[in-house]
Each structure stands twice: as structure tokens, then as C-alpha cells.
Amino acid sequence: MRKHLGHIFLQVLVLFVVSCNEIWGDHSLGNNLSLLEGDKTEDRIIVYCSGRSWGTCFTGIAVIPVYNRQYDSSGHYAEFVETAKSNRKWVIVKTYQIQEEKENYWIISKNFNLANIDCSKANCDSILQSHVKGPMTQIEFRNKVRLLNIGLDFK
């Protein structure tokens, strides 16, 4: 009986942690990249996760959009992630620029490893951004996805 209760407790705990990730807005994209969501749609951002609690990413290095694209000069939201999809090698991203009412497209290659790099001493932002292509128009994006044989779409 005790063993059975232990299994039930473990299952409930796993479900709680998994559901908290979704509730708290952490959507893993692989290779330590996460789509973080806040209270507003405009809060959506992709980060390289540098801080986790209970398995949930709560802070990281901004990847898309970077700070000067996420906010305008007045500190208002300027661009946010509309959607993102990933596979083993790639992340594709669609962002929305609020003022311009414009969609932008991005591709992130997951071909990097920051596991043994001290980001307080090295410029991890530059390393990450060297693996990001964009912003692109929808036509440029489709051509690049086809050329790189990425095998992802937003459907």
C-alpha cells in the first residue's frame, strides 16, 4: 500500500511540475532555449535560459527579440514573439512589430554549446546572436527554410 501511495504522489508531483511550466509560461524549445510568456502577449520572448527553479526557466539571455527591439525608446513594447516551433536542430520564430504592424521571421540554429562558458566573462549574447538569422520577410524566410532543409512550419 505504501509503495502504491508513493507512486501516486510521484505522478502528482510530476504533473504539478509540468503544469507549472505551462502556467508560468516556460515553453522549452530545446538546447536551453525557451519561449517565456508573461501576463501579456507583448511579454513573449525567446531566451537562452540561465536561471531555473523547479525545472522552470525564469530568466535568461534575450535571443528574440533582443532588448532594443522588444522595447521602443519610450520603454513601450515594440516587438514580441507571435509563435515559435522547434525541432532537434532549429527554431523558427515569427515576431510582430506593434507600431509598424509588421511580421518578421527568424531562424535559430541550435548548433551551439554554452554549457562550459562563463557568460560573466565571455560575450554569450554575441555567441547566441551568431546563430540567429533575421529579421526576414516571409518570402526570404520561406526560401531560407527550404535552402537549409529545416522541415518546420507554423501550422
Automatic annotation (TrEMBL):
This is Lipoprotein. It comes from Chitinophaga caeni.
